[in-house]
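Before the break, one more example. Copy the sequence into your notebook; we will annotate it together after we see the structure.
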Amino acid sequence: LLMKKNIKLNLKILSLSYNLLGKVGWFDFGTALAKCKKLSNLTLNLMFTQTLDGDIFGLVSGLKNGSNISNITFKKLQKQFIYFFILFIYYLIFQIFNILLQYLL
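Here is what the structure looks like once it is written out:
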């Protein structure tokens, strides 16, 4: 994996992987990636819960610590925002339905 020039890394950082990778240390993991001599482009797709923001910060700090990577694309996808948005739409539909029922009765 670390011998390729371009890496697209999909990290789904949830509680299970946090328990496994928390022992390694995100800063050290990012530094190891960044110091790989053949790696020049890195795309990170991160999906995580809000409680792990500090670990993402450690990973990005570790990546910036190494100097060999010239292009880091950092995409942060938060599931909780998507879930909140879906629940909000359901809430709006319910409220509209409730108002229509009151108007008809």
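The first strand starts at residue 6 and ends at 13. The radius of gyration is 20 Å. Try to locate both features in your own notes.
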